[in-house]
UniProtKB/TrEMBL annotation:
The keyword Nucleotidyltransferase does not apply. TPR repeats lie at residues 100-133, 180-213. InterPro entries: HATPase_C_sf, HATPase_dom, His_kinase_dom, Sensor_HK_TwoCompSys, Sig_transdc_His_kin_sub3_dim/P, TPR-like_helical_dom_sf, TPR_rpt. Pfam families: HATPase_c, HisKA_3, TPR_10, TPR_12. Keywords: ATP-binding, Coiled coil, Kinase, Membrane, Nucleotide-binding, Phosphoprotein, Signal, TPR repeat, Transferase, Transmembrane, Transmembrane helix, Two-component regulatory system. The chain crosses the membrane at residues 378-397. GO terms for molecular function: ATP binding; phosphorelay sensor kinase activity; protein dimerization activity. This is histidine kinase. Residues 1-20 form the signal peptide. The keyword Coiled coil applies. Residues 335-376 form a coiled coil.
């Protein structure tokens, strides 16, 4: 039998398999380098790579190709398809890095689809693997993504913490794409808090980076974000230019989710400028694109704008229909129960991480003890009988010292675990109480507002009764805001000075928008210690004192200007609320419940409160807290 042809066949077959494997790898690498600039071409290349891998039954490269396809489809806004591809990739590979990449993509899809709990679970799985593999850039990417989940849930302090941590890593590693994403995310939080100049600075920095990387997807997102800041700055023409540029790029790369987001922004501007019919065209397009891509946030936004459009057209029945759909979707995506589960996932992840560290420390300690024991035994054998008693005494002393050291470390570990468990129980109790407040009282108050709105829309009521219903509705809405403030404080172990400044700024912005004849200003000294923190009770009392002072000035002072200032002086934190109203004589005027409540709250937190008023010149309320007391007695 002539074996030469058979051997040649095997030789060429082995070359063919090796070539195809190399081709699948190279095609994947080429596509993932290209996809930010030309996603459609990247899809064609990845489909070719997948065909080659499937033809030669290369399971690992099938997994890589499917997950990479999922990543590109995610950037094109096809989140369901993207998620399905990455989930299939999980079943086809045992490679740790491939698994982590798939988990990260699944997390991003779930986040866009509004399933925040599932998103955080997937992200934590990815982060665990990247930490194990010591992949620093990938860790920072996932940490940045986790920050976005907290941002969507309204947990801004956690979001900022994660974004800043990720940005620090990207800056250290000089990773431009990571920095761009981090700048974008932190800018969104600044924009939400009303710090528009900071937001615009970060968005423009991100746009510059994306242009240098020639990333069409990144350029589109950053362009859209810059347009949003110009909108908030009331520079409408500039905003429309940026929104249209973003929509054009998203259409070119086939990303329906991005197109929907840009169209929603354009429709909002058109509605506010009473260009109703033009706005309706963009709302329809945005709603179609958002439903095609299953983007929960953009569907929610489109429903809200439908309600605004029909309200402007005086079609109250249709407006109410869309508003109910909007609130139903919003409540399903964002609720305290979801926040509680997300917080629980974070605690479980951190606890598991601590337990692994403890086990590692114990293993190191046991290994060191064994090594020391062997050395002692070796030395004892060499020294001989003459020094037996001395070595026995030294050995006993060392063993006792090690035992005491071990007991001390074990006690410290036990104390740490007890402290963690206590904090977890306290957090669970806070979450349970706040959930009860939201689900019971909050839901009942919301039902009252909805019922009052239904009465106004459904019946022709006398003007006096309409005015009364409006008063009740506004009072109930105010009660809900105060309930949310209380829940906000309960959900925090402590309240930082930055948290308090942001809360005060939001309250003043709302007061400014509803008080036509009064102007407000809010200043906080830049040199204040950023590490200043209050307990949740103290922080809430300080916020209530300021809130009560502002309400009194609005109701009774007849002021045209109301100023709030926070600064430090003589080792004290001072808060001043000043108005130019009627003023009064503190000696002759009987103090009402509002001022008495402020004094009681100040006394409860160990603060000093002074009320200075001059008739026809105005009133100043000063609250003083000792910085030394805050720094020495506050227990984190």
């Amino acid at each position: 039998m002539n074996l030469k042809p058979f051997i040649c066949l095997l030789f060429f077959l082995s070359i063919s398999i090796g070539f195809s494997q190399g081709t699948a790898e190279k095609l994947n690498d080429s596509a993932m380098t290209l996809y930010k600039q030309d996603p459609q071409r990247a899809l064609v290349i990845l489909e070719s790579a997948l065909d080659i891998a499937q033809k030669h039954k290369q399971s690992e490269w099938i997994a890589y190709s499917k997950n990479n396809l999922g990543i590109v489809y995610r950037d094109l806004g096809q989140f369901q398809k993207s998620k399905a591809l990455s989930e299939e990739a999980l079943t086809r590979t045992k490679d740790e890095r491939a698994l982590a990449s798939a988990y990260n993509n699944i997390g991003a899809c779930n986040r866009s689809l509004g399933d925040y709990e599932a998103a955080l679970t997937a992200y934590l799985n990815a982060l665990t693997i990247y930490e194990k593999e010591n992949l620093v850039i990938e860790q920072a990417t996932v940490i940045n993504n986790i920050g976005m989940v907290y941002s969507y849930l309204g947990m801004n302090s956690k979001a900022v913490e994660n974004h800043l941590k990720a940005i620090a890593i990207f800056e250290k590693e000089n990773n431009k794409k990571g920095l761009s994403d981090g700048y974008n995310n932190i800018a969104i939080l600044y924009a939400n808090d009303g710090e528009l100049d900071k937001a615009l600075k970060y968005f423009k920095s991100s746009l510059t980076i994306e242009k240098s990387l020639k990333s069409q997807k990144g350029i589109a997102e950053s362009t859209n974000n810059v347009g949003a800041v110009f909108y908030y700055l009331a520079e409408i023409d500039s905003a429309l230019v940026y929104f249209n540029q973003s929509a054009s790029i998203e259409r070119a790369i086939g990303n329906l989710a991005g197109v929907g987001a840009s169209y929603n922004n354009i429709a909002q501007i058109l509605l506010e400028n009473e260009r109703l019919e033009d706005a309706k065209i963009y709302i329809d397009s945005a709603y179609y694109c958002a439903n095609q891509s299953k983007t929960a946030v953009d569907i929610e936004t489109a429903l809200n704008m439908y309600s605004q459009y029909y309200e402007a057209k005086n079609d109250t029945e249709t407006a109410l229909y869309y508003y109910k759909n909007f609130t139903t979707l919003k409540d399903s995506l964002l609720n305290i129960e979801t926040n509680s589960r997300v917080a629980k996932l974070e605690i479980e992840y951190q606890t598991e991480k601590k337990e692994k560290e403890i086990l590692s420390q114990r293993a190191d300690l046991a290994e060191k003890e064994l090594d020391l024991s062997r050395k002692n035994s070796y030395i004892w054998g060499l020294v001989g009988l003459a020094v037996v008693l001395t070595l026995l005494g030294l050995l006993f002393y060392n063993q006792q010292k090690l035992k005491n050291s071990q007991l001390k470390k074990e006690n410290e570990l036990k104390d740490a675990l007890i402290k963690i468990e206590t904090q977890n129980r306290l957090q669970e109790q806070r979450l349970r109480i706040s959930r009860d407040l939201h689900d019971n009282i909050g839901a009942q108050l919301t039902f009252i507002i909805s019922s009052l709105d239904n009465l106004k829309y459904g019946f022709q009521l006398p003007d006096k009764l309409n005015a009364k219903l409006k008063f009740i509705s506004e009072f109930t809405t105010t009660t809900i805001y105060e309930l949310r403030d209380t829940i906000w404080a309960m959900n925090k172990n402590n309240i930082s000075l930055e948290d308090l400044k942001a809360r005060i700024s939001n309250f003043i912005d709302k007061a400014n928008s509803t008080s036509e004849n009064v102007t407000f200003s809010f200043e906080a000294e830049d040199t204040l210690q950023t590490e200043i923190k209050f307990s949740s009770v103290d922080g809430m009392n300080i916020y209530r004192i300021i809130q009560e002072a502002l309400n009194n000035a609005l109701k009774y002072a007849g002021a045209k200007h109301i100023d709030v200032k926070i600064h430090s002086e003589n080792q004290h934190l001072e808060i001043l609320i000043t108005d130019d109203g009627h003023g009064f004589d503190p000696k002759t005027i009987e103090m009402g419940n509002g001022i008495n409540n402020m004094k009681k709250r100040a006394n409860d937190i160990g603060a000093e409160i002074l009320i200075e008023s001059v008739i026809a010149k105005g009133t100043t309320i000063i609250v003083k807290l000792s910085l030394q007391k805050l720094n020495t007695t506050f227990d984190v």
